[in-house]
Amino acid sequence: MVEPWLRGTLTEVDTVRRGVLHALELAREDVARWCGDLTAGQLEARPFGLPSVGFQMRHMVRSLDRLLTYAEGQQLNEAQLASMKSEMESQGRREDLFAEFERGIESAMQRVRAIAPTGYEEARGVGRKMLPTSVGGLLVHCADHTQRHVGQAVTTAKVVRQAERGTDSV
What we know:
Elements (H helix, E strand, L loop, with lengths): L14 H21 L4 H5 L8 H19 L6 H8 L8 H21 L8 E4 L4 E4 H31 L5
Antiparallel strand pairs: 1-2
Helix pairs in contact: 1-5, 1-6, 3-5, 3-6
C-alpha cells in the first residue's frame, strides 16, 4: 500500500500541516496493521524490559495533546500532567486503549488543521522551563515524535509475537 504522503491527498492544506497529517495517518494505519490483533496481555507485555505497545500508543496520543497545547500557546493543565505520569500503566480493556488512540489521533488532526500557517514562526515555550521553539517546530516534532514511537510499537509487537512462538527470528 502506498504511504499517505504519496497518495496525493490533503492538497488543500499547506505542506507543513499536510506532512504532519500524513504522519498521523500513517501512525493510525501502522498501529492498526501491526498491533490491531494483539491481545490485551500482548499489548501490555514488556519483553526484555521494553516499554509496552500499550505505553507507546498512550504516549503517542497524550504527547500529541501536550505538544499541540504548547503550539496553541497554552501550558499543560493538571489532567494532562496526571495522564503523562500514568502512560506506563494499563488503563483497562484493549478496546479502551484503541479508542483512546483513535480519539487522540482524530483530535490531533483537527487541532493541526486549525493552526494557521501564518503563525509557524511564532515563538513558543515548552514545559516549566519554557524551552524555546516555534509553532512550526512543534508541528514538525508532532510528526517525527509520533513516527518514532510507532516504530517502537511495531518492533515491540513483533518481539511479543516471536517470544510467544519461542523463536528468535523477527
